Amino acid sequence: MRGIQWRGFGELDYKALDQRQPELATYGFNPGSTGNFYTGDFDLFLRSRLSEKLNVLGDLTFEETNGQNFTVDLRQTFLEYRANDHFKLLFGRYQTAVGYYNQVFRSASWLQTTADRPLIMEYASNGGLLPTQAVGVSLAGSLPSGGLDLHYVAEYGSSNTVRPDIDGSGLLNYEDDGNHVLLGLFVRPSRLSGLQAGGSWFHDKISDNSAGTIGSRYGQTLVNAYLVYNGHGFELLNEGFLLRHAELHGPELFNMPAFYVQASRRFGHFRPFVRYQYVNANPESVFNDVLLRYGPSLGARYDFNTFVACKAQLDRTVRKNEPDLNGLHLQVAFTF
Amino acid sequence: MLKASHLALIVLLAGACFSPLLAAQDSDIAVVVNARNPATNVSMADLRKLFAGQKPSWPNSVPVKIIVRTPGCRERFTLLKLLGFSETDYKLYWTALVVRGEADSEPVAVFSAGMQKEAIAAFPGAVTLIDSREIKPGMKILKVDGHFPNDPGYPVR
């Protein structure tokens, strides 16, 4: 089948925060504003089947920045060779399997129950902590395992994480990542339809340039484990991370835990949700703008039909050495 | 004033009109595949995975092609029940699979049993759910957990 399949996603957002200190000024949200409208991401997914076993996929995102300007981000573009259920090869720019959320929800807000991604799974370009994208090669497939339905994923590639500080400093951190290796496994037991459990191990090398000078080099190891259930109207997401930064030519070692849990239940068109997230970054680490942050989010999604949804979300974030942050996030998300 | 005989006639006519619908509600839903598909039996767990797009190919390596009925049909209800989804969840689920590159496209949705029959014949890897009363000669029916439709213990309704 030749030709290109298109799928578009868009969103309109209103966000209000109870403080004027700039905080996570992304997606067109004005730092220092008590509340403003913005358009978030506009995504175009393109997919084309080149042959029986060869596909190409692209994810082109137009992202609002300050001053209602827009940048273009090619979040994914890869060739996919699918030999059989046991062997699928991706070559190009892909979303890393560093976490379940990153693999499943991609960049379209319409796909998510909540109005935003958990901070630990936020795109690095929006202040997230993990290398969410890379250029390289990815292998995936299923392994003979009977009713356990075991799957593997292996990646080797290059990410180049540049993340803005989320404490309002306006600085950008260039992590100068080395090539990464990722190994992951997950199961979908046949007897427990809708359940998926898995984990991954990621390793690369990064630099701590957060002080504005070329800093130390660290080995970065990211360990992830998750347990999710999606079926019969329920969505339960539980995901934990250990971020380990070990100085290559020095004694510094930082072990930084993070997790989020999210639960929702569909009642007709209405899906109320609750989420709790926690990130504890070391003040001496490259994530010295994040520090300790935790708190709940409450809200609901309402699906007008199978193309348009609106969401309302209340966030409370407790921050170390900073006042608590309360937010309201309203969103209309759609697909076409 | 209606006579008793007229009332009896109305009841009979009403019964004749609605009995196929009522009977259809009681009939089993068959799993139908292309006649050249070597499979003969599928477990309920594998049936869920087939219609959830989690089994991309048949044991003979032919890609699975899922054919479904449009919303509002009985087979559609059975499909959603099988997967544990609402219509919106189903749309979300398949859209996510496509944008992740795990599926070529959403399942083809057809309006009638006749179109299901044509699609099953046209695609070697096709599989669909069809009301057992709509089964036509030449359709290959899979056993589910060792049972044919309308056997005692057949699990897909």
**CATH homologous superfamily designation of chain A:** Porin
Strand order of the largest sheet of chain A: 1-3-4-5-6-7-8-11-12-13-14-15-16-17-18-19
H-E order of chain B: HEEHEHHEHEE
The percentage helix of chain A is under 10%
CATH topology of chain A: Porin
**First-to-last CA distance of chain B:** 43 Å
Topology, pairings included?
The complex is a heterodimer of chains A (336) and B (157).
Chain A: E1 4-17, E2 35-38, E3 41-49, E4 54-64, E5 70-84, E6 87-95, H1 100-105, E7 133-143, E8 150-158, E9 162-164, E10 172-174, E11 179-187, E12 195-207, E13 217-231, E14 234-247, E15 253-265, E16 270-280, E17 292-303, E18 308-319, E19 325-335
Chain B: H1 4-26, E1 29-33, E2 41-42, H2 44-51, E3 65-69, H3 74-83, H4 87-99, E4 108-110, H5 113-122, E5 126-131, E6 140-144
Parallel strand pairs in B: 2-6, 3-4, 3-5
Antiparallel strand pairs in B: 1-5, 1-6
Give a verbal description of the structure.
The complex is a heterodimer of chains A (336) and B (157). The model of chain A has no long low-confidence stretch (mean pLDDT 89). With 336 residues, chain A is mainly beta. The two termini of chain A are 21 Å apart. Chain A contains one helix and 19 strands. Chain A has a single domain, classed as Porin, CATH 2.40.160.10. Chain A is globular. In chain A, the strands form two sheets. In chain A, strands 1-3-4-5-6-7-8-11-12-13-14-15-16-17-18-19 form a 16-stranded antiparallel β-barrel. In chain A, strands 9-10 form a two-stranded antiparallel sheet. In chain A, strand 18 and strand 19 (325-335) form a beta hairpin. Chain B has helices at 4-26, 44-51, 74-83, 87-99, 113-122, and strands at 29-33, 41-42, 65-69, 108-110, 126-131, 140-144. Chain B is an alpha/beta fold and 157 residues long. Helices cover 41% and strands 17% of the residues of chain B. In chain B, strands 2-6-1-5-3-4 form a six-stranded mixed beta sheet. Chain B starts with a helix and ends in a 13-residue tail after the last strand. Chain B has one domain (28-144): D-Maltodextrin-Binding Protein, domain 2 (3-Layer(aba) Sandwich). Chain A binds chain B through residues 1, 5, 7, 45, 47, 49, 52, 55, 57, 59, 78, 80, 82, 84-85, 90, 103-106, 108, 110-111, 147, 149, 188, 190-191, 193-194, 230-233, 266, 268-269, 303, 306, 335, and chain B through 43, 45-46, 48-49, 54-57, 61, 63, 83-89, 91-93, 95-96, 98-101, 104-105.
